[in-house]
Design brief:
globular, Rossmann fold, single chain
């Protein structure tokens, strides 16, 4: 499963190599909304890590030999603080009640590197065997979230109408979640078609690394081998900066008729790929609890259900480089293997169960 790509390869390398700067990643400013740092429960986040662990562990244990990049459950997840207790309820591993279709909105640069990445269709058959559909909702690689929000709306409304409850699950990877959130607020007509929204390594609150980047760095991806992406509106990097992201969240309460879920990448330091170590270290000047691109607390959608902290870096949870470019991965992207299909399977099974218990 490829969940798309955002501060990808070339820009990420540029960001990583710019470590000589002395400019603070979070500079002094007075134009941000008032902010506080509180426990997730006090921010309206529903912590369901205990039940999700049961579901994910059951999915991983069910067929280890047939799960790409299988990893034991305790290694796949990161325990953070006091995790809620397991529910003790059985996990249904058969056909889902609702055959969800997961559409991933990728992040910055995906359209540029997709031909080189060779990930089209990656994991699609595996997820179909598990009872789910999977695809990528393509948006401009280098445009702002406001621009891409219209593309998300258009793609959703262009889908054939279906009877019964909606079965579309939008999965926002990195900047992709910002595109989705802006689409849901700006275009309420699309909400009735969406069963749920999931942030995976989402840049919900932006990334301090974007404060130290400029759009021309991202534009270099237009020269990537085989790239077929245009310049867009040139607002991608600005859309990833913490100031604009937090200001947008403050001014735009999220709709209550959509169910939101958050999957956070929270790798142990030894799970950071070699090529991502410089950006991990740079972002650690703000907070070492990061995935090399986004700090853990900036990945949670306000008012969402927190499903898990994943022991994987920003690329491992989404970009199958160890499968499509194994030689490159063995040298540079050294911690890329992760059971992505099993993770998405568990997420969709949890949503299936959650919506059956408390339909929206």
């Amino acid at each position: 499963m490829s969940l798309g790509a955002r501060f990808h390869l070339l820009p990420a390398a540029l960001l990583a190599l710019s470590g000589c700067t002395v400019t603070p990643l979070l500079p002094y400013a007075t134009d941000t909304p008032p902010l506080v740092l509180v426990p997730a429960a006090q921010a309206g986040v529903n912590d369901q890590r205990g039940r999700f662990r049961e579901v994910y562990c059951a999915v991983l244990a069910a067929r280890p030999a047939d799960t790409p990049d299988h990893r034991p459950c305790e290694e796949a997840l990161t325990r953070v603080g006091t995790e809620p207790a397991a529910s003790g309820k059985p996990v249904v591993l058969g056909a889902p009640r609702r055959p969800f279709k997961a559409l991933v909105v990728p992040g910055i640069g995906y359209e540029c590197i997709e031909p080189w990445l060779k990930s089209a269709g990656e994991g699609r058959e595996e997820l179909r065997r598990r009872g789910f559909e999977f695809g990528v909702l393509r948006v401009d690689a280098l445009s702002s979230s406001a621009f891409n929000a219209t593309q998300v709306r258009d793609a959703v409304l262009a889908m054939p109408p279906e009877s019964g409850s909606p079965r579309l699950v939008l999965v926002g990877y990195s900047k992709g979640i910002a595109d989705i959130l802006e689409a849901l607020v700006a275009h309420p007509e699309m909400r009735k078609h969406v069963a749920a929204v999931v942030a995976v390594a989402g840049a919900v609150g932006g990334s301090p690394l974007a404060n130290d980047a400029e759009q021309y760095m991202a534009d270099l991806m237009r020269h990537f081998p085989g790239a077929r992406c245009g310049p867009g509106d040139g607002g991608a990097v600005h859309s990833l900066r913490p100031g604009p992201r937090l200001a947008w969240l403050a001014a735009n309460p999220l709709p209550r008729d959509v169910r939101f879920y958050s999957v956070v990448t929270y790798p142990s330091p030894d799970r950071i790929s070699a090529i991502l170590k410089p950006s991990y270290n740079k972002l650690s000047a703000v907070d070492a609890r990061n995935d090399s691109q986004v700090i853990f607390r900036d990945q949670v959608v306000p008012g969402s259900t927190l499903l898990a902290y994943i022991n994987a870096d920003h690329w491992a949870v989404a970009v199958p480089l160890s499968r499509t470019h194994p030689t490159l991965a063995s040298v540079f992207v050294t911690q890329n293997a992760y059971p992505r299909e099993a993770l998405l399977d568990a997420v969709l099974r949890y949503i299936d169960e959650d919506l059956a218990i408390a339909p929206r």
